[in-house]
Amino acid sequence: MVGTVSQVTGMFSSPAARNPQTGMMRAAYAGLGYRVEYLNLEVSSLRLGDAVAGARAMGWLGFAVGEPHKRAVVPHLDGLAESAAMIGSATCAARRGDAMIGENTEGWAVLESIEEFMDPEGARAVVFGAGAAGRAVSVELARAGVRAITIVNRSRSRAARLAGLLTNIGVDSVGVVEWSDTFRIPALTDIVVNATPVGGAKEGEESLNLDMDSLSSRMLVADMVLNPHDTQLLKEASALGCDVIDGIEVLVNQGALAIRLWTNADADTDTMREALIPALGALAR
Questions:
Q1: What separation in angstroms does the CA of 149 have from each of 91, 109, 116, 166, 175?
Q2: What integer is the mean pLDDT of 70-89?
Q3: Model's pTM, two decimal places?
Q4: Mean pLDDT of 147-169
Q5: Is residue 183 domain-shared with residue 232, that is, in the same domain?
Q6: Is residue 12 one of the residues assigned to a domain?
Q7: Catalytic residue positions?
Q8: Cα separations (Å) of 53 from 79, 126, 206, 236?
């Protein structure tokens, strides 16, 4: 339980100036009535170990980990939670006694969003991307009991490595598709997740190399792209009547999960969303 003494959490990343989460996290703490600070800190790769040691020494409740540190932070931590160990990276660390234990909330946040619409156990999923986000999402879907996962990725070898992990977790059927041509989503798919940056402003691309006509209203569609959050994929899916999850929802859930890990409290996600949206608008300008 967080008491009256001010506690500290924060984010270690580089560049830190593009992090839109600070206001969202502070609003969440204020809504809970907790005197907890959230610091957005520029931490270079060379100083990452020092930052972790400092947070540990100063009694921080924990910290979030942004790019480019999600894999590099692992040897500086005192251990990893089970899913983070499978994924091989950490997006936050939480104090447990005197130790800082790494957690990966990226795929977990997507899973929580999916569970607001459906029980994923026994479902069939298509995941675009086998990088850090794709790996995190796929592992959490596997742990939730998804029966079949198709990984669509530009690098077949990276997708094949992820497929091996998912098979070991216990997914009944894992498919790998080298993403060199326009992809058609199989008709019986229940869950579609874009875990790549394609479709975002940085990519300069309008949409995924995907046959949008292969979407159907039975599918739940999630896109982790944050800017813009109303991607072409989600527009097409919404028009068909699909349930959709955007990057804002995923980022809010990530923040709420971090606060839960740090304080054992459930933050108000509506408050967090209201604080996040103007911050994203400011970054887009």
A1: 23, 18, 20, 8, 6
A2: 97
A3: 0.93
A4: 96
A5: yes
A6: yes
A7: 70
A8: 14, 39, 42, 47
